[in-house]
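USER:
I would value a second opinion on how I read folds in token form. Give me a protein, with the fold worked out from its sequence. Write it directly below this note and I will take it from there.

ASSISTANT:
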Amino acid sequence: MEALPARVRAYVACVTVLGLLCPLSLVPSVPVFPPGGARFSWWAVALLAALYAGCERLARSRPVAAPHPGGTFHPVLLAGAFLLPPPAAALVALLGALPLPVEQRPYLARRLWRAGRLVLAVWAASRVHLAVGGRDAVADCDVPAALGTAGVAVLVFCLVLTLLDGGIPASAPGVLPRGRRLFLGALVPITVHGLAGLMMALLWRSPYGPVAALLVLLPMGVSWWAFAQYHRERAAHQATIRALVQAVDIKDGYTRGHSERVGRASMMIARELGMDDERVEVLRFAGILHDVGKLGVPTRLLTKNGPLTPEERRVIELHPEYGHEMVRGISFLGEARAAVLHHHERLDGTGYPYGLAGGQIPESARVVAVADAFDAMTSTRSYSRARPVPVALEELRRCAGAHFDPRMVTALVRAIGRAGWHPAVTADDTRPTPGDTRPAPDAPRPIAGAPGPAAGDIRPAADGTRSATGGMRPAAVPGPTAPAAGRPGTRR
């Protein structure tokens, strides 16, 4: 435990020592705790410990998030707490948890911490269960009484785990699994495991014996497999999105972090509008992937020195369609795909790529458009300083109804007013090297031969905001209206 701070080493050592003391009363010469007056068989301890270790190894072979770090299959442990005296139930946790491998350093500290916290929690749950008469209710197969006493034991089990996790010193975040989850949030999954453990205990004491008790694990295994499949699919989705965003960041380094911030702002708007969690997540994906179409734009255009020709501008403004082609086959994105295609549309019909107006623009695209504009105005780039948040919000209000949906603007204003804007990722560290006078790829640039703002001019265009809202529509794509000829735009 050399890599751990002294406070953490001391805390882990105390938990480990207390955990080792719990089963010692099984040794007659060392009566540390009273055995509880209940008889037990050593083979039951060995069977439950082996069963717990086997279930844990199976669970750890799948990418499943555990309700508590260090112990994912609580039904077997809780069944031991309902069936055995406290020292014997603690021994089940000790023998089952110690042999399990750990995947991160420091290995010894993590192994001892996992075993110690589980032993203490199981011992406390078993003590309380015995004190409230739960052992007799299980032995008599009195289901109503057994449910009540088991509920008290599960409550104690969850409380001890939460208190132990909360005792990891705040000065060493991330060193050990701290598990600072809210008690009520942790109680829900552990209660489900407690019901399964109680079913195991009742069947164990029934005429059918331990074999019937093991059958309880079959439906648990099926549900566990389904849960694992869900998490595996979700992990694949996240990996797909990360790969796309990283590819955009590599190609267009000046906008590094922009996608993540737009995703966060989109999520804030969606929550303020009262959307359900699943839709909030989809809109977060939409914000993260809104500029993925830049992968289809030649790098020489994104990094070109000097003004863009009208043809080059039209190529860059095809990036929403490129992005839609890239993500339209990813089914889990749902309405996020429409946001990728239409996030540069404007309510007055002057956006691109299709010149949609008003309600023709998908709601997801209207959310991302506001989030995109807000981050573009509040991010520091190599060519301009960030606008203060109040100034950017006022600009969004000014353009609401013409360029942006007023509902989305109002939602963002309310959300930021309540929670503030403190993005975890910024673009401040993407600064030009000394002597590099090249403007940023998304800086407002004049079109060759057409009047417009000079490179680096951050003043709003005559028809709306600056680089946040885009410029003319490309003539090369189909749409209900003709493009606005010669209007200066941006490289977004």
Summary: The radius of gyration is 30 Å.
